[in-house]
Specification:
By secondary structure, the protein is mainly beta. It has no helices and 25 strands. The strands form four sheets. It has a seven-stranded parallel beta sheet with strand order 1-5-9-13-17-21-25, with no helix packed on it.
Amino acid sequence: TSPTVIDCVFRDNQSVQIYVYSANGGAIYINGGAPAIDSCAFINNYAEAGGGAIYCKNFSDTLITNCTFNSNYSMKGGAISNTSSSDMAISLCSFVGNNATFYGGSIYHLDSQNMTISDCSFTANFASSGGLTSRGGAIYLQSAAIDISQSTFSSNVSDLAGGGVATMNGQAMI
């Protein structure tokens, strides 16, 4: 399926666990398909495990444009978690004050195909557990490929590695 979400506000939504670390996608959960999300605001959403605002998996092909992600929170991917062979394109978006306990204050990209990010800004995002275990203040990439262009990273923080971007066994073109 290819749903389109346009001009929406997702505020104070939660995905809380039934099983340990099973709750994903505080605002939107995508399992396959090719959704387009345009001109939306994601504010203060929470997911116990991954993707405080958006969680994608299982061969999804997601397009996100002109969106704002502010103050979303999760264990992995404060704003977005993209996993399980999913492609994603993000453009003209802003990420401000998102927080992940472990990986990717704004974006967690794991075991996926390709992600492209263009003309985006990442400001004051955090990957912080209060110890030395968190990586990727703005973006964390593992076993995946990412292409980042014409984007700005400022004042992002990580406890351990990559205040802006951290990569582990991945391919990053910045």
